[in-house]
Amino acid sequence: MNEDPTNNVTSGPAATAEEEVQTRSNTIVRPTDHQMPLELRGVTIRYEGGGADPLTIVEDFNLGLEAGTMHCLAGRSGSGKTSILTVAAGLTMPTAGEVLWEGQSLDAMDDDEISDRRRALIGYVDQGGALIDGMSALENVLLPAVPDGQVAERTEMAKNLLGLVGLGRRMHHRPAQLSGGERQRVAIARALILGTKVLVVDEPTASLDREHANQIIGILKDTTRDGITVLVATHDQELIDVADSRTYMN
Ligand SMILES: Nc1ncnc2c1ncn2[C@@H]1O[C@H](COP(=O)(O)OP(=O)(O)O)[C@@H](O)[C@H]1O
Ligand SMILES: [Mg+2]
């Protein structure tokens, strides 16, 4: 532990401690050890009704996630789970309230900054975990590394991730040759390839039988043991039960 009170950059992962972020207001923000990876404050999400009255889906929603924990958004279809996930991932902006990544409000970032920070921080697995048909599992996992030209550097990690999700011997198979559960596992590996700290996952077990659903639950739980924070939307009671905390939407 660093006891020097003037220096709030202490242990923690080296990459985080060395990161200094220039915000639009020109302040240098140094992440501290205790910053939550993801926080939502007073988030309200309202959709225009195409002529009808606007529909308020989520109102004054608050959530703070500690590193290495899993939070579950539970609730029926249409209750706003996906809406919260996309807001948390900075893919859509809330009508009111704010989202903070490692203590920094997205309100203080421009679009490019949000994209850059998202790439470094958040892996998003959308519902169904869509993969590219013409590519192998390994190529799919490496896809996020293409824009930065990091495919070669990340190949070993991609193979390791596929091994961790139990697909070490399937890495050259195409999506059509994989089961639904296997495809979902490839999508999770892909979301982790850039060294993600926060995994945002939309209904990962929805279309799976119990056995394959349980494999996915095990993988998500394992990622939290590696210090990754998981925000998952589901109505799968077993997944709801293994989460460290949960919100029931209605
Ligand atoms: N872009 C949008 N414009 C208008 N209404 C939307 C939009 N996205 C979602 N909705 C509506 O908001 C509600 C919540 O949707 P969603 O967040 O997808 O819920 P869930 O993921 O829990 O099924 C639904 O009634 C849906 O039709
Ligand atoms: Mg949804």
UniProtKB/TrEMBL annotation:
Keywords, alphabetical: ATP-binding, Nucleotide-binding
UniProt keyword Lyase, yes or no: no
Region annotation Disordered: where it falls in the sequence: 1-26
Coiled coil residues, start to end: none
Example of a GO MF term: ATP binding
SMART domains: AAA
Tree of life domain: Bacteria
Cited PROSITE patterns: ABC_TRANSPORTER_1, ABC_TRANSPORTER_2
Protein's UniProt keywords contain Nucleotide-binding: yes
Pfam families to which the protein is assigned, alphabetical: ABC_tran
Polar residues compositional bias, start-end: 1-13
Domain ABC transporter: 40-250
Protein name: ATP-binding cassette domain-containing protein
